[in-house]
Description:
The complex is a heterodimer. By secondary structure, chain A is an alpha/beta fold. In chain A, about 25% of the residues lie in helices and about 25% in strands. Chain A has an 8-stranded mixed β-sheet with strand order 3-2-4-5-1-6-7-8, with helices on both faces. In chain A, helix 5 packs parallel to helix 6. Chain A starts with a helix and ends with a strand. Chain B has a 5-stranded mixed β-sheet with strand order 5-6-1-7-8, with helices on both faces. In chain B, strands 9, 10, 11, 12 and 13 form a 5-stranded antiparallel β-sheet that branches. At the A-B interface, helix 3, helix 4, strand 3 and helix 5 of A face helix 15, strand 14, strand 15 and strand 16 of B. Strand 3 of chain A pairs antiparallel with strand 14 of chain B.
Amino acid sequence: MSLEQLLAGRPDLWRGRAAPAAAPTGVPTGYPALDAVLSWGGWPPASLSEVLDARPEGALGLVLPALVRLSHGPRWLLLVDPPLPPFAPALAARGLDLARLVVVTTSGETAWAAEQGLRSGACSAVAIWGGEAPWRGAALRRLQLAAQTGGALGLLFRGEAAFRDPSPAALRLRVQRGATGLEVSILKQRGGRPVGVLRLPRSGS
Amino acid sequence: MHWLAIYLPALPLEVYPEALASPLPLAVGQDPRGERVLLCNAVAEGRGVRAGLAAGAALALVADLRILPRRPEAEQAALERLAAWCIRFTPQVSLAPPRALVLDVAASLRLFGGAEALLTSVGAGVAGLGYERTCCLAPTPGGALTLAGQGHGGIIAGRAALRSALAALPVTALGFDRRAHDDLAAMGLRRVADLLRLPRDGLAQRFGQGLVAKLCRLLGDEPDPRPAFVPPAHYAGELELPAEVPEAGALVFACRRLIEELCGYLLGLQAGVRRLEWRLGHADLPHTAFTLGTSTEGRDPGAWLAHLRERLGRLILPAPVRTVALTAGEVRPLPPGPLDLFPELAAALAPDPGLLDRLRSRLGEEAVRGLQALPDHRPERAWRWCLPGEACSGRGRADRPLWLLPEPQPLEVRGQRPWYAGPLDLGGERERIETGWWDGFEVARDYFIATTGSGERLWVYRECHGRRGWFLHGLFG
Lengths: 205, 477
């Protein structure tokens, strides 16, 4: 019997990097490499995740596989204040059920609409583009609480400048572009450790 | 048989919205000319005005008394609205103009938890709509109406009890014609008890069959069928405000009464509405109108009120409001409730329509939309906005960008190559999209998937004719 087996038999032993003892409950991201390093085995369920990207529209491809999966459930998929209208044929081609998709365009009430969507329990995921307005800690905490209450996956897209601000989100990712695809680094994850640059292949086309 | 009579003693005064709360003495005349006082408000009563007083005498008592003409149409309309509301208790509601309703509640007693509970909930409901009322439950409709009209509320359990309750009333309470009243008085018959003691055949000889038949119906010796009130196919309610309201937020209270009435009407019809049309009347400007809509038929007053609050919060009034009118859109029957084995489970799985309604009422109808993919080769025509949940799943194309710019953006050209913060690498593949003569949107473009120096991928095209300019049209996420 090896040491590894002995240790694995002790559920009361905390081994630093080990994922929680329960089976992974996250929403698979569609990128096996990313799932492997996330402590939920995917996007953290019923909490807020932040995606920091210099371009507001850049990271939709990263979250799209998860949205596609969720769109086949009975609940709505809310996009709050996307920077441009998403192109419906491309979404349909990737398997997204457009009948579940709702695009909300507010004029300066992004936080209110996002919170309503997260809290209601009627949405499986709410993707939020903050525009130019800076997010305050209190507003983020409200979103995080709303996501917990409503059991929704909150995805907040922010600029790279937010990198240094503290945030109550369960997961923070930073996205950059490399020659072969996206380069993702995990800045923070609840119950796990930050992970350096992870190269993900391009999905879709 | 059990009949519930609702008598509205102050209805002629209540159709004047300002009358009840007014600090000034007010009275309503008995006829359009207003020769005698029919009713007066508490202020006038406190200063000695009584019902039946001649107008001159009343004015002598209270010099600043305002005598209002009676409004029979408004009273009738109020009575009909109340009848529509009462349909929640029984389908058999009859009008007894000018000031009463009578409900056949024989079949409703068990559902509403007995006579006592039913009487309480009817009384409380009518009072909640802002009417003074006397409710009486009796074995015959005539008996119930007569007793309620005389201010006797409560429950009369059987025909014997009805007989003794009626016996104590003066004969004038029975509502015979004037000549019969004079004759009865001349014969020394003052109470109903005196009349009941007399033999029926003698009465018939003296006063005719009509009086005896009425007496028989009153006591339940003969049937007394009443025509049922048929609610109108549309609802339209209007309320005059007691004072001009300058602020939209303060209208919620007035609107609540209309919503309650509408929801009572819908409950009776087992129906719901999706749209409420509101009209706010001003003194001399054209009215302000707005619509409240939901995605499913509703008749829950609380939900409508919540929407209304959001909407009124955004409303800017051009002038103070005098009247509020509510028209219900198309009234549709509600779908029957789900008959699932686990209704909670089904409710948890269904998307909540309330969320989208909340978003709509605060952000506007246009702010909440779904996306639909259309089978067209031109990117601009390959999608459109639709109502959420309406899109059928199209096939789409995988080689399209995730974002499409609303307008193609012209690109700079440097050294014969398109430039977007650096030279673009066009890749090898070219896709030609052209024609569209059938709807006047003709295109002829060569599309490329270009890569920038930083690894971003763009959807760019070059016009095939004319200036042959380069444009950015989409972004791959």
